[in-house]
Specification:
The protein is mainly α. The protein has helices at residues 2-40, 52-61, 63-98, 100-113, 118-129, 133-156, 161-169, 174-212, 217-226, 230-266. It has ten helices and no strands. The two termini are 32 Å apart.
Length: 267
């Protein structure tokens, strides 16, 4: 009986997953087949764009180096930079929401920080931190914290005035209003910022490794590019894309869990 229920639940999950992503998978397979055909027929040189099968073969060939050295290095840079951006982003957004003076003083600096090209700042970070983890983390942090700050701050401003007045008449304090009203209403905007930020983290880590690194997928792709090994270069790009997709899906799953929890508490 339990096995039958497990099979039904698995079949139900697969059906929902295919109904949501089936068209995407079919289109992706079609594009890969066309890509493979174009390269195999010689319409595009393989040293410019390798065939998908050649990229897959390079992934298998370099799997130990990629999966045990370069992928963990890039993931560590992303994880540390993303964690720091979450903490600082929430603190800045909350401070600007609670105090207008903080907002007037810091918000322009937050905007200005995004107008400076990262390629210009990366050598500065290397000068400050050397060829260490922290030079890449600094790039990741700079590119990732802005979406979190802005989305969290905008989400906290979306409180319903009528609900706020109702809570005040019931004797709620400012902390109660912030915790029970403003934070739940800000969660959708906050998670939207997280999903944007985590993808930018992968980009930032790659830029940092390209300009000054000794390991990581960005460093590996740069080294393979200089050696004209496009198969291996595209293999690193595929892993970077998969890393971004997995992290994005993880944030989306957490958002769904928090949404279910919040709705359950409201009921």
């Amino acid at each position: 009986m339990q096995n039958d229920r497990a099979e039904v639940s698995v079949w139900t999950w697969c059906s929902k997953w295919l109904s949501q992503y089936g068209l995407f998978i079919m289109l992706m397979l079609l594009l890969l087949a066309i890509w493979e055909m174009i390269v195999r027929m010689g319409w595009v040189p393989s040293f410019i764009i390798p065939a998908p099968t050649a990229i897959a073969g390079s992934l298998v060939e370099h799997r130990r180096l990629l999966l045990t050295l370069h992928l963990p290095a890039t993931f560590m840079e992303v994880a540390v930079g993303f964690g720091l951006s979450i903490v600082s982003g929430i603190m800045l957004a909350t401070g600007m929401h609670m105090n207008r003076s903080i907002k007037k003083a810091l918000y322009p600096f937050i905007v200005i920080s995004q107008t400076i090209p990262l390629i210009a700042l990366s050598p500065v970070f290397i000068l400050w931190f050397g060829y260490t983890l922290w030079s890449k983390v600094a790039v990741v942090f700079l590119i990732a914290f802005f979406p979190i700050v802005v989305s969290t701050y905008d989400g906290l401003r979306q409180g319903d005035p009528e609900q706020r007045e109702l809570l005040l008449t019931m004797g709620a304090s400012k902390w109660d209003i912030f915790r029970k009203l403003q934070v739940p209403l800000a969660l959708p905007s906050f998670f939207s910022g997280l999903k944007m930020s985590v993808v930018y983290c992968v980009v930032g880590a790659t830029i940092g490794e390209w300009l000054g690194g000794s390991k990581g997928l960005g460093y590996f792709s740069r080294r393979m590019s200089s050696n004209m090994n496009t198969d291996a270069m595209f293999a690193a790009i595929v892993l970077l894309s998969l890393l971004g997709i997995i992290l994005f899906a993880l944030i989306a799953w957490l958002e769904k869990r928090f949404s279910i929890r919040c709705h359950g508490e409201k009921k």
